[in-house]
Amino acid sequence: MSKPLTRVLAAAALAVATTFLCLPVQALAPLTVKLATFAPANSAWHKALLDMGDVWTKSTEGRVTLRVYPGGTLGTEASTVKMMSPAVGELQAALLLPPGLARINDAVDVFGMPFFLESDEEMRAVFAALRPLMTQRIEAAGFKVLHWGNAGWVQLFSKKEIRTLADLKAVKLYTTEGDDKSVQWYKSNGFQPIPLSFNDMVGGLKRGMIDAAPSPAYGASMLQIFRDAPYLLDVKLAPLLGATVLTNAAWAKIDAGDQPKMLSAAATLEQRFMNEAPKMDADAITTMSARGLKVTKLTPAAMTEFRKTAEALVASMRGPTVPADIYDAAMQARTAFRKSKGK
User: Fold this and answer.
1) Where are the chain's structural domains?
2) Are strands 93-96 and 231-247 parallel, antiparallel or unpaired?
3) I need a labelling partner for 246 at 20 to 30 A (CA). Which of 25, 142, 149, 190 fits?
4) pLDDT tens, residue by residue, 234-278
5) What is the pTM of this model?
């Protein structure tokens, strides 16, 4: 090959290379994250999600926006999880409660064990110990956990006063439709579970399909549960923990520089949920009491007997309802906490 031709080809190659180097890097397309939740419209939980979305929009300069579908308008949590599956892909995210999270991995069922935890401090200690494992299992199933949260303590609202476990076993109790393991556990321990969808719970109380429904006080106030179930048993059944999850497919569409900004906003929301829940529940009970709610407080002796019997019921959940290793880890964390408090 002649030297002049070689120089021409070299110059052409240099020009092509320079052209490619000067081209702008292809930016990821803007993403609208569609998120479903059972949080009632205009509730504190719904507003917190909207605030997080506003931060996402501003911090990413519009590259990530959030559209929230509150109040279970897109169906049950089971259907929500299905809508996030790769085969469907109609949703990118959801704020899920334990029934929905259990559809992804049942490790979170450990926090649904009734009477297992007694206080916010104890709940935080056990949650801190189990959080990494629960997060790992959910993320191994194809999701990014953006944040966890606490929606308050589940308490029992009923049509008639309940003072003992015997009273509780005598009523038709709302349970989540599709949560077959929990339904079977209730039945095997002498309760009368009635599986209904979340959106049918209030109507079920009105029509007499159920006599009692578990709910955090703030949620009961928002949904007006106390109108048809005017008795509240002042016993903490279990903390209602939840998490917002995003599909891995959606997470991969977000610029690496924007991901930390989203997680930061989600962490702020988590602290908001964790810190505000106790006051929200206390204020809700005060408001509902002024409107006719009757609060039943057990005597110390009755509470001791209540919890003693409940401990045996909780032990029966190991394996059939709650994964054995998760149950054991929770028990170990609770024991360590109580020892640190001299209990």
Assistant:
1) 28-340
2) antiparallel
3) 25
4) 999 999 999 999 999 999 999 999 999 999 999 999 999 899 999
5) 0.87
